[in-house]
């Protein structure tokens, strides 16, 4: 299977060096590159896709467990494992938003009949890794994505304040309406700033822009962390002997010698009398 994005080898970072999420860039270059926007799409898509896959996978696993208790429904149990595999394939393909699709490997069916399919599907370690990603880690990954987007998306709205603040009418504490909006408590109590003029809107947008410069790197880091978890569980495990096998398969020094017979004295050669 072709390898995915390489894992960082440095001790400081073990995150996937995603092809479309370069890890080392200045804040200004990061914001004006495509990295934070791809990361936003990847994280935002998980809120909907991940939730749907979690529901479908959980229902499939529970149905497979129930059906597995009945001999006549072994086919449905195999179908439940196939549903989980399809859900994992969706997540592997979704990685293309920020990197290459995640490779995969499943056990082949070697025994005939439904029992052979059931053994191959339900004893495959890849099946349990799929369940761990789709079901067990769903709350943690959802929390990561939601918290990141709750910090990032309001900053983008703040940067665009000069484009739309004049079209908003905010209600005052006395019941009247005033053009503009208030950053803070909308009821006028507590700390807050009114944005009701062009200078105020431009200053606020500049502050949000400076904050967005640095938060954009946080968004990229969150997407890379999410992608690292997906790679860890959804791709085939690394073979610890892969390097040794590659060395054995490569041509060695003996392959540089001629394959012909070893030279030696011929029948015409000998001692002169």
UniProtKB/TrEMBL annotation:
| TM region(s), chain numbering | 43-67, 131-155, 197-215
Outline the segment boundaries, as ranges, of region: Disordered.
252-273
Source domain of life:
Bacteria
> Could you tell me which InterPro entries the record lists for this protein?
Put_sensor_dom (IPR025828)
Pfam family name, one:
Sensor
Record's keyword terms, sorted: Membrane, Transmembrane, Transmembrane helix
Putative sensor domain boundaries: 42-234
Name of the molecule in the record: Putative sensor domain-containing protein
Q: Which organism is it from?
A: Streptomyces violascens
């Amino acid at each position: 299977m072709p390898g995915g994005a390489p894992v960082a080898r440095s001790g400081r970072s073990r995150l996937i060096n995603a092809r479309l999420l370069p890890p080392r860039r200045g804040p200004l270059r990061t914001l004006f590159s495509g990295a934070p926007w791809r990361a936003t799409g990847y994280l935002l898509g998980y809120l909907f896709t991940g939730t749907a896959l979690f529901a479908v996978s959980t229902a499939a696993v529970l149905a497979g467990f129930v059906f597995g208790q009945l001999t006549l429904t072994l086919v449905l149990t195999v179908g439940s494992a196939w549903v989980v595999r399809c859900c994992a394939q969706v997540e592997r393909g979704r990685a293309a938003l920020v990197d290459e699709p995640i490779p995969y490997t499943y056990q082949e069916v070697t025994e005939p009949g439904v029992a052979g399919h059931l053994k191959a599907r339900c004893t495959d370690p890849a099946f349990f890794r799929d369940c761990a990603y789709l079901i067990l880690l769903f709350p943690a990954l959802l929390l990561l994505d939601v918290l990141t987007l709750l910090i990032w998306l309001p900053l983008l709205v703040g940067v665009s304040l000069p484009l739309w603040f004049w079209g908003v009418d905010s209600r005052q504490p006395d019941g009247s309406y005033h053009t503009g909006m208030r950053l803070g408590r909308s009821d006028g109590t507590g700390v807050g700033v009114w944005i009701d003029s062009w200078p105020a809107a431009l200053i606020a947008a500049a502050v949000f822009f400076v904050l967005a410069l640095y938060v954009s790197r946080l968004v990229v880091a969150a997407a890379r962390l999410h992608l690292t978890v997906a790679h860890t569980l959804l791709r085939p495990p690394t073979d610890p002997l892969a390097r040794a096998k590659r060395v054995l398969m490569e041509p060695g020094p003996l392959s540089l010698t001629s394959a012909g017979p070893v030279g030696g004295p011929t029948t015409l050669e000998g001692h002169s009398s």
